[in-house]
Write a structure and sequence with these properties.
Layout: E1 12-17, H1 23-35, E2 41-45, H2 46-51, E3 58-59, E4 68-73, H3 75-85, E5 92-96, H4 111-120, E6 128-140, E7 148-152, E8 155-160, E9 167-173, E10 176-183, E11 185-189, H5 197-200, E12 212-218, E13 228-231, E14 236-241, E15 246-250, E16 253-258, E17 263-277, H6 283-291
Helix pairs in contact: 1-4
Length: about 300
């Protein structure tokens, strides 16, 4: 993917930051010190700026108008940044000031130099664009009305509302009936999200180089309790049946309540999330490091 603009002047950088990490303010000031003397624009979502005492940088300007998004936080902050972009092809430079940090690429002390290198000479910066698949999620209510739509980087989950009760969910694949699940919930994950809730539910870990939909039941009460890995071209339909209500959760955000007969559709989105990456490490090495595999 090419950079969004051919000129190097007047670039726009938006910073999405964790609200409670002390390191955020220092990093933002370093970004500001490089950007502003060169005539570039720097802003933050209003809530992010206020949380770190940087109210003068707070703006309602959409993140999609930026040439680069710098994310300061862990994976939760990165998910929020992706949602703010809403499918826009803005590169994301993620600095790790969180905990687990699967998607972060640089340390906080490196953020300003990495940003400067990408904005000045992206071809010689040492970074490449890593495009991650997004899920397109839509909800059609039995009661009618226009569909509700979201995008997910990690997963969409249909989960029970009542503790101690399962939900029944009919699953179709490309419109053909597949199975009725009785479970605490169902996860539809991307390869990026395969190491998140999907893995906790004993689903497969899938390289993000793949393009696939991963269907994993949560605590299923049935004989068929395996995950299903589908092609990127296939579409999943999920319908709550019976009398028990459920919730739709997109990348950890509870976005809607489901009533019996409501249909959630999951398919590969035409948009992608674009992360700046160095040449190494590879995904399997990141997994090995995060989980201490092979350590004595």
């Amino acid at each position: 993917m090419a950079t969004r603009r051919s000129d190097r002047a007047g670039r726009g950088v938006v910073v999405v930051a964790h609200h409670d990490r002390p390191a955020v303010r220092e990093v933002v000031e370093a970004l500001r010190a490089w950007l502003q003397p060169r005539g570039h624009r720097l802003w933050m979502p209003v809530e992010d700026a206020a949380a770190r005492g940087l109210g003068d940088l707070g703006s309602a300007r959409p993140a999609s108008e930026a040439d680069l998004l710098v994310c300061l936080g862990g994976d939760g902050t990165i998910l929020r940044a992706v949602h703010l972009l809403d499918g826009a092809a803005v590169p994301i430079l993620a600095a790790h000031v969180g905990t687990l940090g699967y998607l972060a690429e640089v340390e906080p002390s490196e953020a300003a130099a990495a940003m400067a290198a990408w904005l000045e000479t992206p071809e010689a910066s040492g970074f490449r664009l890593d495009e991650r698949m997004l899920l397109g999620v839509s909800l059609r209510c039995r009661a009618g009305g226009p569909p509700l739509e979201w995008r997910a980087l990690n997963e969409v989950v249909i989960e029970r509302q009542q503790s101690g009760h399962t939900v029944w969910i009919d699953v179709t694949i490309d419109g053909a009936q597949f199975a009725r699940y009785s479970a605490d919930g169902l996860i539809v994950a991307t390869p990026t999200g395969s190491t998140a809730y999907n893995m906790s539910a004993r689903g497969p870990v899938v390289s993000p180089r793949q393009r696939a939909l991963i269907l994993t039941p949560v605590s299923p009460h049935m004989l068929f309790d395996r995950s299903l890995v589908l092609d990127e071209t296939e579409t999943l339909g999920l319908t709550v049946v019976g009398t028990r209500e459920a919730d739709v959760v997109v990348d950890g955000r509870r976005v809607a309540a489901l009533e019996p007969g409501d249909v959630v559709t999951c398919a590969r989105s035409s948009a992608s999330a674009c992360f700046l990456r160095r040449g190494a490490p590879e995904f399997h090495q990141v997994v090995r490091m995060k989980f201490g595999l092979g350590d004595d």
